[in-house]
Amino acid sequence: MKKIIYTASAVLLAFPALVSAQLVIPDPETAGGITGDDFYTILRRVLWYLLGIIAVLAIVGFVISGIMYITAAGDEDRVEKAKQMLTYSVIGLVVALLGLAIVTAVNAMISGGMTYTPPV
What we know:
The chain is built from 3 helices and no strands. It is an all-alpha fold. It has a domain of 80 residues.
């Protein structure tokens, strides 16, 4: 069972990198240091990447807890464990969304305007 979980985790972590493998040639005029805008772009992309992974893990948690709840057959311990797992999945998803919202709000306060730009 651990082998399956480790393999699935490795695939989930590597899949976005494999899909978006692109060659980016830097512009000679802007090549140099990292500006504040570049830093926010990097941070935003990392947060969206992590949010995608957390969303997938939350959905897996929802499915597993639902299966555990359905197959509990009246066993109170398994029902309680399924409810805990569902609660933890929801809490994890909410925390991840709050992290993204906080970073976006801080950027809006620093830059002086609310600009929502999804990752490219």
